[in-house]
Amino acid sequence: MVACGGQGEVRKTGGTYAGRGPDCEYRVIRNPLVEPVPPYEEIGVIDVDAFAAQQLPNDEERFRKVVGPKVCALGGHAVIPAINIYGRWIHGTVIRFNPAQCDRCEVEVHTPPEILVRPTVQHVPVVGDIVRPEGG
């Protein structure tokens, strides 16, 4: 039976690293195109499963409860969530920063999630949008 909030199925996709403890600090990066993200390696993916769609996480706090122990066990520094059209957090890509290529990786990894800046939603052009040339 699945607990409220779902559970995650983990698949390794990269290197093997030591776990970071069950309550490690990690970032949730909602939009890697907007948020500054240091060089990283994808080390795993987590598919969030639930008995009913209503049990899938619908906010960052619930998502963290489902994926947190798995992110830490893989040795991850951050997770990039996928959110479906109904606002349910259904997937996470676990990443690990490369400290050799990033001066501030350790500082950013340990930033408490409450003070991270949330990116604003930007419009992505779709078929049918009116596109105006620059300067016009």
Task: Give a written overview of the molecule.
With 136 residues, this protein is an alpha+beta fold. It has one domain (7-113). Helices cover 15% and strands 24% of the residues. The chain is built from 2 helices and 5 strands. The chain has helices spanning 60-74, 105-109; strands spanning 7-12, 27-28, 40-49, 78-83, 89-97. The longest helix is centred in the middle third of the chain and has 15 residues, at 60-74. The chain is globular and about 40 Å long.
- In total, how many domains does the architecture comprise? 1
Tally of separate helices? 2
The number of E-state strands comes to: 5
Which percent bin holds the helix content?
Answer: 10-25%
Strand order of the main beta sheet, please?
A: 1-3-5-4-2
CA distance, first residue to last residue: 59 Å
**What is the overall shape?**
globular
Instruction: Provide the β-strand percentage band.
Output: 15-25%
List the topology elements.
Elements: E1 7-12, E2 27-28, E3 40-49, H1 60-74, E4 78-83, E5 89-97, H2 105-109
Parallel strand pairs: 2-4
Antiparallel strand pairs: 1-3, 3-5, 4-5
